[in-house]
Design goal:
Chain lengths: 266, 286
């Protein structure tokens, strides 16, 4: 491709990806409660409403609690599994790895329905715990993949050297493995956190009528008429995602993380 | 620290215990339950009762299900081909950029990818609406007489789906394209090919298998669309994903919903299996 053609193509894709975001940002600063673009007047009142109206505040609180804890739970499941699989490539650990990756590959509605049936039977349908655990299992793929990648990048010779110098496996884990995979632990957590924040269908099917998260709240408001607060939430979500992924890129190796996201491609 | 291969002793299995228990309880049991319920008998007014009947699966042969299935496959396929057609040349261009610029693009693409389907549906509904939409710009330019509403409808739905699928497609193609040996297109240029010729006659054929797997992966991804058909489409544009949720939550027909979910899972797993096999063949060929 020639340079002109390439620049033209990239500009076109950028325009396509930005168009809806620009309009939403514009809508969010309308002065009156109208969906107008270009916006009439300029007001940040809708962002204030997001932080002051009880129902939006409640949805935000739910979303944050679920994202913070489900991402932590996902990492806590993924780390020991990835660590074991790195040390022993046995088939049953690989099957578990496959189970961890599966929900991410399938249309989410399937996993969502499985969780719905499960929580109904357990009696926790409609409880926040149900959403939290479901998200942790649903997003376990992300830390599983990033942590495995981090472990793979450790030079086995360093491990051998420390073992020869007399370190037992616990010491090796604490002084060599843990510091080297820490960035991958953090990025796995961050991916799971952002995706949990944005997830709709699992949260809806498992507890949508009682535990309103921000995406559920937006979808419900879509039915009862627009309010610029929805646009304000959308802008906040875009900014949070850019901030989090920007931080991952700043402190980690983003191209490498993504190059291995589908490591089968080699 | 033992280096792989030799089978681990029992005591060394300790780290495996907790993930195995968690995935067993919260993943295997839900899927097992779903499989079982798909054979259960629906009870009006309640949920279901244990039974073994195939009537839930028999409903697949009804025109109602056939139409939804046909439409879902058509929509997902069309959107997948469009996404890859745009994303492939784009990703190729992206991987030729300097690393710093690449990282900025990747951050932006990840941010769009992580956005909730709800937010994207809302954004496109606004962009295609009469009051705040693109048509106002066309009026301003004198192309249209008055602003029009372009949503809901099939073009709006297809556009929304391509928008959701595009960042995913870029990330699916990124590894293969970023590992493409830059000497290949360079060599063809030295032999006198124009940039476009070298792209279509060298880059595309070399990565044919990656393109096919990308189309399949994005197709499966698109099958999961749930919010967009409701926000940007009309009721006749409901996909299997919407239908499953509707049966489960609003019609309280969990057995039929479960049977449809199992069906969707088998189709998706088969397709993912094909792409994995394609990947392995490629590795073997090297």
């Amino acid at each position: 491709m020639s340079t002109t053609l390439r620049n033209l193509l990239m500009a076109a894709v950028l325009a396509l990806l930005l168009a809806p975001l620009v309009v939403v940002a514009g809508v969010s600063v309308n002065e009156k409660k109208e969906l107008l673009f270009p916006p009439r007047g300029f007001s940040l009142a809708w962002y204030g409403e997001l932080l002051s109206q009880a129902d939006w505040l409640n949805a935000m609180k739910n979303s944050l609690i679920i994202a913070v804890f489900s991402a932590a739970l996902a990492v806590s499941i993924a780390f020991p599994l990835a660590y074991f699989l790195w040390r022993h490539r046995v088939w049953y650990a690989q099957v578990l790895f496959g189970l961890g990756v599966a929900p991410f590959m399938l249309p989410p509605v399937i996993t969502a329905l499985g969780f719905l049936l499960f929580w109904v039977n357990v009696g926790l349908y409609g409880n926040m715990i149900a959403t939290l655990i479901s998200h942790a299992i649903f997003f376990v793929t992300l830390p599983l993949v990033t942590i495995s990648l981090g472990l793979e990048s450790i030079d086995r010779q360093i491990i051998e050297a420390s073992t020869t110098m007399g370190a037992d496996s616990r010491t090796v884990f604490r002084t060599v493995v843990l510091p080297m995979v820490r960035p991958y632990l953090i990025s796995g957590y961050a991916f799971a956190f952002v995706l949990s924040l944005n997830e709709y269908i699992v949260a809806y099917m498992v507890a949508g009528f009682t535990v309103e998260t921000l995406p559920i709240k937006i979808f419900n408001s879509l039915r009862y008429g627009y309010t610029p607060v929805m646009a304000a939430v959308a802008v906040v979500f875009v900014l949070v995602a850019i901030l989090v992924f920007g931080l991952i890129a700043r402190f980690g190796d983003l191209p490498k993380l993504l190059g291995a996201w589908s490591s089968k491609e080699t | 620290m033992s280096i792989a291969q030799q089978s681990p002793r029992l005591r060394e299995h300790a780290p495996l215990l907790y993930p195995a228990v968690m995935l067993g309880i919260f993943f295997i049991i839900p899927f097992g339950t779903m499989l079982a319920v798909s054979f259960f008998h629906r009870v009006e007014g309640a949920f279901y009762e244990p039974a073994f009947e195939l009537s839930n699966y028999a409903r697949f042969f009804s025109p109602f299900f056939g139409r939804a299935l046909g439409f879902s496959l058509l929509l997902a396929g069309l959107a997948a081909v469009l996404s890859v057609a745009i994303a492939f040349p784009f990703t190729y261009a992206l991987t030729r950029l300097r690393r710093r610029v690449q990282v900025r693009w990747l951050v932006f693409i990840l941010a769009v990818l992580s956005l909730s389907e709800v937010i994207i549906g809302f954004a496109w509904a606004t962009l295609l609406s009469r009051t705040a939409g693109l048509s106002n710009i066309l009026v301003w330019l004198g192309i249209l007489d008055q602003p029009q509403s372009w949503s809901p409808g099939f073009p709006a739905l297809l556009l929304g789906l391509v928008y959701v699928g595009l960042p995913y497609t870029v990330l699916v193609l990124y590894p293969a394209l970023s590992r493409l040996d830059p000497e290949l297109p360079e060599a063809s240029r030295m032999l006198g090919a124009s940039p476009l010729q070298s792209f279509f006659k060298v880059v595309v054929p070399v990565l044919r298998a990656s393109i096919v797997s990308a189309i399949i992966m994005v197709f499966v991804f698109n099958l999961g669309a749930y919010v967009l058909p409701q926000v940007l489409g009309r009721p006749q544009h409901w996909t299997l994903s919407v239908l499953i949720t509707d049966q489960a939550i609003f019609q309280s027909n969990l057995p039929f919903a479960a049977a449809m979910a199992i069906f969707l899972m088998v189709v998706s797993l088969a397709l993912v299996g094909v792409t994995l096999m394609l990947g392995q063949q490629r590795r073997a060929a090297r």
